[in-house]
Amino acid sequence: MSSSMEEVFETLPQHTCSWLKGKMTMHKYQDFWASKESLDGGILAQQNFKAEPSDVFLCSAHKTGTTWLKSLAFAIATREKFDVSASPLLTKLVHECPRKFKLTICGYTPSLRFIVGYGPYWDHILGYWKASLERPERILVLKYDDLRKEPTSNVKRLAEFIGYPFSVNEEKAGVVDDIIKLCSFENLSNLEVNKTGKREGGG
């Protein structure tokens, strides 16, 4: 970490909280709480990362269907290139699949404590919700329960949002249903690559 970054951290509010592996000192930067390591990378990314109009950011809390949503987005965007029966999702971990668009995962872990990694959980949810109301063409909020109860309508919403809407012919041909089945928990969890983490032809 550079001396200039050290000087930044000296001015930030601090809080020590219990974590999985003991105690951790968190720093507050622009209303977000995080460790030095996370903030150091985050600040550098903030200063240097240039988003493209076609970039898709998947922002979700740990254990809220992130892998499922990422798989759906990948299958939707690459359906013309990969038939369901030949999808890379069948043999590769989802984050290793070739990408037709940039998909960035922004994750944070909810906790019962008010101060947690990356800030209070409900502040994140409320922030995204308000932003989605102000800019519905840029931010889509999908609820896990809704996706489970009504996968077809929500997968169609997702496809429309990321710029890969289904045609009437695709819907009639069952493409939406095929993608839902491909990316279902039951299907993906039973694949060898997701059981062992080992890819086809290698470890």
UniProtKB/TrEMBL annotation:
Matching Pfam families: Sulfotransfer_1
Enzyme class: transferase
Coiled-coil portions: none
GO BP: sulfation
MF GO annotations: hydrolase activity; sulfotransferase activity
Name used for this protein in its record: Sulfotransferase
Lineage of producing organism: Eukaryota, Viridiplantae, Streptophyta, Embryophyta, Tracheophyta
Keywords assigned: Hydrolase, Transferase
Enzyme Commission number(s): 2.8.2.-
Any one annotated GO CC term: cytoplasm
Assigned protein family: Belongs to the sulfotransferase 1 family.
Listed InterPro entries: P-loop_NTPase (IPR027417), Sulfotransferase_dom (IPR000863)
Domain Sulfotransferase: residue ranges: 53-97, 116-197
